[in-house]
Amino acid sequence: MTQEKFTNPFSIVLFEPEIPPNTGNIARLCAGTDTQLHLIKPLGFSISDKHLKRAGLDYWPKVKLSVWENWQEYKKNVKPQRLVTTSAKRGTHLFKFQFQPGDHLVFGPETRGLPEWMFDEFEHAVNIPTTDNVRSLNLSTSAGIILYQALSCLKIEVSFK
Description:
Number of strands: 7
Number of helices: 5
Strand order of the largest sheet: 3-2-1-6-4-7-5
Strand content: 15-25%
CATH class: Alpha Beta
Mean pLDDT: 89
Order of helices and strands: EHEHEHEEEHEH
Low-confidence stretches: none
């Protein structure tokens, strides 16, 4: 029996990411789940940064990567079906959110999160609940949690080799 190739219906969008190892870890996540990764400039690092490359290991050739000059260029060229913003402070609880195929999961800069206008412009926001012990979770940890929850909600299994 031939197994169909796994196709991931989600995309991860990093809006103005700042820390190379986080982006590298997310790139590795995207390679391992066949997820499209969009980086929106300005970036807080160079794509050739050694820490970025190290975090992504030798998986970079397997990452479906697009780098956009700004938010407007991304939206104009990609035309995502639905944008789902992420926040440590607002939005629907991760386990109650209804993910849909084609969702683009949008994460903000590590030090400040997404700008206010994004929450005003887009109606879908999700958060990962945490205790008061931390302000937020690490960006790459959050991306992994949210992506796998989205896959789980749609009962999509990442196929093994």
